[in-house]
Amino acid sequence: MKYIPFFGCMISMKYPQFEASVRKTMPNIGVELVDVKGFTCCPDPIYFKAEDKIEWLTIAGRNICLAEEAGYDIITMCSGCTATLSEANHILKENPDVRNEINKRLSKINKKFEGSISVRHIVTVIRDDIGIDKVKESVINPLEDLKVAIHYGCHLLKPSRIMQVDDPDHPTILEDLVSAIGATPLEHEERLLCCGKACMSEEIPPKMVYDVLSSIEKIKADCMGLICPTCFDEYDIGQIRVGRKFNKKFNIPIIYYFQLLGIAQGFKPEEMGLHRHKVKADYLFKEDVKV
């Protein structure tokens, strides 16, 4: 099945290992990525949107237009990009007055929003279009001894009326995907807590990161598994900053789901870019762990 990938800014510029993990693993489950030239920032679903919603919709609308012209749905690998493009797509489809205003702006560059495609996070495409069983079939190296603490973050699930990914209070999609590669997903008290990146306060985010990491440490998970590069940023290098602030040393590797999938499909940890993380996943290299 063919989809247009939208990797966004942070993955492309800061965490290319995430893009590589997606590009290497998707062919093994029957997904063909059709690249489109000309995408820009999504743009940001919080600060940019709050500053000027019409400009926000115009930029998002232009990105969607590029995919409409190619004729395939967009799949996103970043929860923030999912939030922006999904909400913009919803607003422009449902509100004719707003759509007309945005199309007036887009006409200056010979673009027109038609509302002909969908925007979804890649994990929902795997669950709903490809099937979890296809993921299981691609596994040649099941991660049987790996305990993965799940982190959902905010934008994948909410607002649920627009995102329509899962029950926002009792989601299971990431647990199902982790189980499909042979690992054990673990719930913890703060698995739905925001990473804190969007908070304007300088004091609140470190405490939120501390609370989430403490919750994971409590259940003795081997790593945190997630699907958002912004959350990754907060918990990978962020746990080093938080450790200094609270005089508490954490050692919890933070791993993007498709890196785990790649290892389960037989790729080496280095091929998935795990060596690029600040908190190293040393246990993945030990012979006594089946990875």
Structure, explained:
The structure is a single chain. This protein has 291 residues and is α/β, with parallel strands linked by helices. The chain has two domains: 2-122, Glutathione S-transferase Yfyf (Class Pi), Chain A, domain 2 (Up-down Bundle); 141-285, Rossmann fold, CATH 3.40.50.11810. Helices cover 46% and strands 9% of the residues. The protein has 14 helices and eight strands. A four-stranded parallel β-sheet has the order 2-1-3-4. A four-stranded parallel β-sheet has the order 6-5-7-8, sandwiched between helices. Helix 5 (79-94) packs across helix 6 (96-106) and helix 11 (204-218) packs across helix 13. The longest helix is centred in the first third of the chain and has 18 residues, at 53-70. It is globular. The chain starts with a strand and ends in a 27-residue tail after the last helix.
- Calculate the terminal CA-CA distance, rounded to whole Å: 28 Å
Poorly predicted parts? 287-291
Order of strands, main sheet, comes to 2-1-3-4
The SSE order reads EHHEHHEHHEHHEHHEHEHHEH
Counted up, domains total 2
Total E-strand runs: 8
Query: Can you name the CATH architecture of the largest domain?
Result: 3-Layer(aba) Sandwich
Determine the structural class based on helices, strands and strand pairing: alpha/beta
- Nearest-integer average pLDDT: 91
At a glance:
With 291 residues, the chain is α/β, with parallel strands linked by helices. The protein has helices at 8-13, 16-25, 47-51, 53-70, 79-94, 96-106, 122-130, 132-138, 160-163, 173-180, 204-218, 229-235, 237-246, 257-264, and strands at 2-6, 32-33, 74-76, 119-121, 147-150, 184-186, 223-226, 254-256.
